[in-house]
Amino acid sequence: MAHDEPYILITNDDGIYAPGLQTLADALAGRWDTVVVAPDREQSASSHSLTLHHPLRVQKVTPDRYSVDGTPTDCVMLGMHGLLPRKPNLVISGINQGSNLGDDVIYSGTVAAAVEGTLLGCAAIAISLVPDAGNGYDFTAARDISCEVVAQVIRDGLRPDFLLNVNIPGGPAGNIHGYRVCRLGRRIYREGILQDVDPRGKPYYWIGGQDPAWVGGDDTDFQAIEDGYISLTPLRLDWTRDEELSAMHDWELISPAGCGNGENGAAGNAATGEKRAEGGDQTGSEAGSS
Ligand code: MN
């Protein structure tokens, strides 16, 4: 398989000075051609937000590190379009301080940055470190594991639609049992809103609360982490629920042209267009013209 020379864009959602990014960037820079484009401050849980309503300012912190007063998605967008002398072919987001397991990937700024890389035609990896209970975050083992995963993805040929979510158990390397290829589990976010009154007597709400739980089988990322394994989950961006497509062609919806004139629009809706073409009711407006 032909390997393009890797040019790696490193970003995160914890900010350019976060130890997870610094550790990862230092390690990768020793082996590959790398550049950092990262937010100038923490942007955790920013998901896939893009800054459209004010200009973005970029600061060149060192010759190969740029900070941006925007979101992780902004950073990847800038890095892929014009800020850099050439287009990266691998985006790595992390190492995040905290896990991104199961449904967390929907909220995660770390994963969003990797998603943006994939949307812009690049292989991408999101890497997160699970806290070690009582000991916080030690990125030493996570750094070496990250380098190994990056090397494998490069050997795999940097496929432009390859998006990988990695979670690494906290604690020393000796406590990590290996890698597990697994699917996303389901998060259960419990009693997530704190409500109180501010010093001026106005109520406020604070999203947070109890630690979330999870459900899912032995094949999930949650189980892998609980068992002391590194979770590797390949992700897709096409959210289409394929198994619903054919059943929804039977929906009886009223077409815009049929609204208000008493017609049952089963015949005139794009959703039923395929069925009509097979010889269904031919009255009503043409599917596809609505
Ligand atoms: Mn974060």
Explain what you see.
The chain has 290 residues and is of the alpha/beta class. The chain has two domains: 202 residues, Survival protein SurE-like phosphatase/nucleotidase (Stationary-phase Survival Protein Sure Homolog, Chain: A), CATH 3.40.1210.10; 36 residues, no CATH class. It has eight helices and 13 strands. Strands 3-4-2-1-5-6-7-13-8 form a nine-stranded mixed sheet, with helices on both faces. The chain has a two-stranded antiparallel sheet with strand order 9-12. β1, α1 and β2 form a beta-alpha-beta unit. The longest helix is centred in the middle third of the chain and has 17 residues. The protein is globular and about 65 Å long. The C terminus is likely disordered.
Describe this protein with a few key phrases.
disordered C terminus, binds manganese (II) ion, 2 domains, two-stranded antiparallel ribbon, 24% helix, Stationary-phase Survival Protein Sure Homolog, Chain: A, 290 residues
Record the SSE blueprint.
Blueprint: E1 7-11, H1 19-29, E2 33-39, E3 58-62, E4 65-68, H2 72-80, E5 90-97, H3 104-107, H4 109-119, E6 123-129, H5 139-155, E7 163-168, E8 178-181, E9 186-188, E10 193-197, E11 203-207, E12 213-215, H6 221-226, E13 229-235, H7 242-248, H8 273-277
Parallel strand pairs: 1-2, 1-5, 2-4, 5-6, 6-7, 8-13
Antiparallel strand pairs: 3-4, 7-13, 9-12, 10-11
Helix pairs in contact: 1-5, 2-4
This protein binds manganese (II) ion.
